[in-house]
Design brief:
Number of strands: 10
Radius of gyration: 18 Å
CATH class: Alpha Beta
CATH topology: UDP-N-acetylmuramoyl-L-alanine:D-glutamate ligase
Number of domains: 1
CATH architecture: 3-Layer(aba) Sandwich
Number of helices: 12
Strand content: 5-15%
Helix content: 25-40%
Distance between the termini: 47 Å
Length: about 300
Amino acid sequence: MTHPPAKPIKLNVDLLRDWPLPMPSCDGDKEARGRVLVIGGSREMPGAVILAANAALRAGAGKLTVATGASVAQLVASAIPESRVIGLPETDDGGIRTESAELFDNLTGKIDAILIGPGMQDEPSICAFVHALLPKFPDTKIVLDACAMAVVRGSQSYQEDVEHIRDAHLILTPHAGEMAHLLGDEKHAIVADPHTTARDAASDWNAVVALKGAVTFIASPTGDVWQHEGGNVGLAISGSGDTLAGIIAGLAARGATLEQATAWGVLLHAQAGQNLAKRIGSLGYLAREIADEVPALLDKFGRRAI
């Protein structure tokens, strides 16, 4: 007999205050704050990787490397002067060539968290690239976003990789439409039961899954599920998801666990939207403005109520 899923844990500020993020020592350098690698962007969407990379720094990561298509690498470098930028060989359709994974050999063991996906194009080539890259970083926390998530879609080779990885090290951040694509299901079926969908996907993929929406469900492969309500319609804008993924990656680089980085990231992103809605208006604020709210929110949420 099957049992109904356990009731989700309510994700709110009080929960975060009882789940404090790792903090660097006062005399720690940028290495102590974590090293994050953001891989993304393309000829048509270079802005997505810029949004994600900036968000990772706003979340407190200390050292940033960005890898993007060679055609836009200089543009990205100019937009993010705080980063090292690596230009990657591209496919004719704007994707990243599989052999590009070899360019990351010298970073193995030197990166605390990786984000792959924002602004990438050519799903088949990206999946082949991710397949080649994952074995190089078996112990690194990795956030998969956008078309990079398709590596889990009906992929027998990925499932075989999972069986040889004892500890989960992946975070996926799909909205309902993306989840339907990953599962080969209809979107309405995902919307009808997001709690069970997220929980089952986390178990099947051995990953933390954040199923985004007006109500977001975060599921761990251990069976725990968190539920967050409280975003606003203004967050439904181009680039918002890239920013969320960057926040999560930045927190993971600082030393947060997969579940903690995802939970904090979802709530920080939502609260940033609420702040902007109050100051600018419920519609019309920009994704590039979301990350600017994060440092003050980190300070606010990190303080225990008196």
